Amino acid sequence: MSTQSPRDGDMDILAHGLWGGVGFYHQGIKRFAAAFVLGMSPDLLSFGLFHVTRPGWLRLRLAGEISGPPPLSMLPEFVFHAYNLTHSLVIWMALFGLIWMIRKQPPWAFLAWGLHILCDIPTHSSSYFPTPYLWPLHTPFVEGISWATPWFMVTNYGALLAAYLGVFLYGRKRNGKDGMRGGAGD
Ligand SMILES: [Zn+2]
Fold it and tell me: What is the mean pLDDT of each run of 10 residues along the chain (186 residues)?
């Protein structure tokens, strides 16, 4: 019997994926899926790895036995290193440039990763994983509003709904103009 406490980790990772994918909604399922996963990757490759190593914790969390994110004291050292690497715009830009050079075209879906970092900057408090967006350089941390704040979550998912409705309607209008010149999907 869990009380409906604001959930944080699970919900914001989903929102990250959805925001990452929204711009790729009309580019076929593969591109959308890539952007969706890349949008979640910074958290998957840090907190996600922690959950893989501690499945019992996640089970208790999903069962409502515990709530909130894992306390800092129980997190292994690698999570902090991984968090720095995955949540730095400096690292992200370097990777973006590197992939661009290798593939000879900009890795557009990788923008979803950068968007994740930008979204995290104003939405993390300085007491729990403030976004190290300039790592390894000195980063002035931002005192943000937590994603788990109910009004923020409602606004965020409302905005997501509006964004998907927008791209859906835009696609219908465009398909109408293009006639039967359909792209991927149906
Ligand atoms: Zn994050």
Answer: 38 89 93 97 93 84 81 90 97 98 96 95 87 94 80 91 94 74 48
Give the Å distance between the CA of 3 and the centre of ligand 1. 25
Q: Containing domain of residue 74, as a range?
A: 9-178
Q: Domain for residue 1, yes or no? A: no
Count of domains observed in the chain: 1
Distance from Cα 80 to the centre of ligand 1, integer Å: 12
- Asked if residue 186 belongs to a domain, the reply is no
What is the pTM assigned to this prediction? 0.84
The span from the first CA to the last CA of the chain, in angstroms, equals 42
**43 Cα–ligand 1 center, Å:** 5
Neighbours of ion ligand 1 (CB under 5 A): 42-43, 120
pLDDT of residue 37: 97
